[in-house]
Design a protein that fits this description.
Elements: H1 2-22, H2 24-36, H3 39-59, H4 68-86, H5 88-95, H6 104-129
Helix pairs in contact: 1-3, 1-6, 2-3, 2-6, 3-4, 3-5, 4-5
Length: about 130
């Protein structure tokens, strides 16, 4: 099952990463708009991050080697969602710092997601070959 989650993560991170890379202003605007919705906007973010975090945690319990990175990311998504649901003001403080002029940060995040996507695809291929 770990291979399936690695493929799922590779596709999700690649798609989102490319979008961050080619549309950073829209991503910045998206988070600015979410911040304007206050705590409701934070709930929207938590609703997006929780499902993939839960999938990773439930089906990718790998604690050795480089694939551990994906497991840690899954737990981080779950923790972020928990904090955003339980203490939305904390999440609002985090996203309120985002400005439309800081779109370059989304390019960096996009590059990181594309690299992570490649790593997930490689780990999946290693598991399939074994």
């Amino acid at each position: 099952m770990a291979t399936s989650i690695e493929i799922l993560a590779a596709i999700a991170f690649f798609t989102t990463g490319v979008s961050h890379l080619v549309q950073p202003r829209i991503w910045a605007r998206f988070f600015v708009q979410l911040a304007r919705h206050g705590e409701l906007g934070i709930f929207i973010i938590a609703f997006y991050t929780l499902p993939i975090g839960v999938l990773i945690v439930a089906f990718h319990n790998v604690w050795s080697g480089w694939p551990t990175v994906l497991t840690i990311i899954g737990w981080a998504f779950c923790l972020k969602s928990f904090i955003y649901f339980a203490a939305p003001k904390a999440g609002l403080a985090a996203i309120s710092r985002i400005q439309e002029t800081s779109a370059g940060k989304f390019v960096v995040a996009g590059i990181m997601m594309i690299l992570l996507s490649g790593a997930c695809a490689y780990w999946a291929s290693v598991h399939l070959a074994a």
